[in-house]
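thread: overnight batch results

M.L. [08:02]
morning all. the overnight job finished for the chain we discussed friday. pasting input first so we're all looking at the same thing
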Amino acid sequence: MEKSVRFFLLVTLLLVSTIGVQASGLGIRGGFNFSSLPSSQEVQLGADGWGNRTMEALSDSYTGYHFGVVGYASFLGIFIQPEFLFTQTGQEMVLHVQDDLPDGESGSSQYFTQEFNHLSLPVVAGLTIGPLRVGIGPVASYMIDGTSEYLPEGDEDIYNFGYNDWTIGYQAMAGLKVGNFLLDLKYEGNLSNFGENMQVGGREFDFDTRPRQFIVSIGLLIL
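M.L. [08:03]
and the structure it wrote out:
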């Protein structure tokens, strides 16, 4: 994984250097991302004090946002578009409490949200056909932090999601460039797991998550 990250950063620097020589523009961008899991995932909680309960990560879409800087260069019908973004994503979770708890508690389901903050470095390259652009490229994301609505801050030793610092994925894009304005629709998939496990009450459970997301983004080239 470390070799892949170093290789990706090297390629990004080379592409940014190219844009510095043959620049079409450098600007700002922002938009929304709609992330989801390919399918729901569930683990049985058997730690002391948790009774007969299960924790489930839902496949439902979560709406997040992103903002940052974008570079753009095009020549001979080919474009290169590197970006450096702050990205906020999340996933919907639910805690299922069964009917047969020893204290007589009735069955219930408690829904909550986990949110994650990343630094994302996508580099998309492809073809231009008039104002239309289609392309594909790699994306590396570095996890800054993650929070959960389920437990207050400071209780991470009771419930904690074991996410990875770095993930590598890809983006496929279709977009329009009209003057200095960029309008992009992207699909992002992951080539590495977003997280490997979750910890509840000191016990560790496998929780393989490889989210995908649709991204709608608007940019303005100002330099």
